[in-house]
Specification:
Pnp Oxidase, Chain A; seven-stranded antiparallel beta sheet
Length: 201
């Protein structure tokens, strides 16, 4: 089949999210100007540069109490910092619980049962037992076409790695099985890893 987004796909569910998969999940923690913490997962997330290390995530919907966006973007606008917490398979239910649409004053760490610790380089909370955390300072927020499409870019200023995930000097993802977002309500865990050498290596 072929369709254009403008005309629609005539399927019971939008296939777009199932085409671009798997997608890593950025479990974004942020803090508002009054010190209230927020934690929310975003599957439009990735690393975008090595030097200096930079990441991005995008928010594509709104909350009625957040002036055209969601809590994460609103908080980051106020404070200029956020933390990316890497989601392991074992934390799938906690991550999912933190995705609930809650009033802005509700702390999703407490609501979901996620462990909380302080960041080192920024004034923000992080998921204490996550396999890795990327502390970030905002570089820019870009508004994309569409009513509520915002891409948040940040430079990584601090990196936490859980000790049990470092094997022979490498960060071993098979030790925690990263959770990935597929289409619809589907997820996957990374369990099988193989190497490919580039032709010019």
């Amino acid at each position: 089949m072929f369709y254009t987004p403008e005309a629609g796909h005539d399927l019971p569910h939008n296939p777009f999210g199932a085409i671009v998969t798997p997608r890593p999940i950025g479990w974004i923690s942020s803090r508002d100007a009054n010190g209230a913490d927020n934690l929310a997962p975003y599957s439009f997330f990735n690393a975008v540069a090595y030097f200096p290390p930079q990441v991005m995530f995008s928010s594509t919907s709104v909350k009625p109490d957040r002036d055209g966006t969601k809590d994460s973007v609103g908080n980051i606008r106020e404070t200029g910092v956020f933390c990316v917490n890497i989601v392991e398979y074992a934390a799938r239910d906690t991550m999912n619980a933190s995705s609930a649409a809650l009033p802005r004053e509700v702390d999703e760490f407490a609501h979901s049962g996620a462990s909380k610790a302080a960041c080192e380089t920024i004034d923000c909370a992080r998921v204490a037992d996550a396999p890795a955390n990327l502390e970030c300072r905002l570089t820019q927020i870009v508004q994309l076409p569409g009513a509520a499409n915002f891409v948040v870019f940040g430079e990584v200023t601090g990196v936490h790695l859980r000790d049990d995930c470092i094997v022979d000097g490498r960060f071993d993802v098979t030790r925690f099985q990263p959770l990935a977002r597929l289409g619809y309500r589907d997820y996957a865990a990374v369990r099988d890893v193989f190497e490919l050498a580039r032709p010019d290596d």
